[in-house]
């Protein structure tokens, strides 16, 4: 009886691994075809089955990056680096994603009154010998 249960468990485990592999392959195919939303759904189905790998997180990061969703892409690149800190592809893509995440903040032009106040303040400091 124990041998039968062990065999049944082994077969079930093997089928689950095949399901994850087929999901991963189909998600990769969706990614190659430019269907990034569907690829993300497939990758997340793999995550729901508690199967993780640096390749899975890397591919999730790439999918989000292609959709210009920089925050999630950085998150998954960093998760991939936690599992495999030597993966140079992940490091490179993380640099690109972080560059996109930087805010480009431009200084607002000063109004006439703001300029007048600064000139007046500086003049007062110069007249009093403080500048």
Sequence-ordered SSE layout with sheet pairings:
Blueprint (H helix, E strand, L loop, with lengths): L1 H31 L3 H13 L5 H13 L3 H14 L4 H14 L10 H16 L4
Helix pairs in contact: 1-2, 2-3, 3-4, 4-5
Your description of this structure?
Helix content is 77%, strand content 0%. The chain contains 6 helices and no strands. Helix 3 packs antiparallel against helix 4 and helix 4 runs antiparallel to helix 5. The protein has 131 residues and is an all-alpha fold.
Quick overview:
The chain has 131 residues and is an all-alpha fold. 77% of the residues lie in helices and 0% in strands.
Task: Please tag this protein with its features.
131 residues, elongated
Q: Give me the secondary-structure category.
A: mainly alpha
Number of helices: 6
In percent, how much strand structure appears in the residues? under 5%
The best one-word shape is elongated
Number of DSSP-assigned strands: 0
Portion of residues in helices? over 70%
Question: What radius of gyration results from the CA coordinates?
Answer: 27 Å
């Amino acid at each position: 009886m124990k041998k039968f249960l062990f065999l049944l468990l082994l077969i079930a485990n093997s089928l689950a691994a095949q399901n994850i592999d087929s999901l991963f392959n189909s998600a990769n195919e969706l990614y190659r075809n430019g269907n990034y939303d569907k690829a993300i759904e497939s990758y997340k189905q793999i995550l729901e089955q508690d199967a993780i790998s640096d390749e899975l997180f890397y591919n999730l990061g790439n999918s989000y990056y292609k959709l210009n969703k920089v925050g999630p892409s950085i998150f998954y690149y960093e998760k991939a680096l936690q599992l495999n800190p030597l993966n140079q592809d992940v490091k490179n893509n993380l640099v690109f994603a972080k560059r996109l995440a930087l805010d480009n903040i431009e200084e607002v032009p000063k109004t006439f009154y703001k300029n007048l106040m600064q000139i007046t303040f500086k003049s007062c400091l110069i007249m009093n010998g403080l500048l």
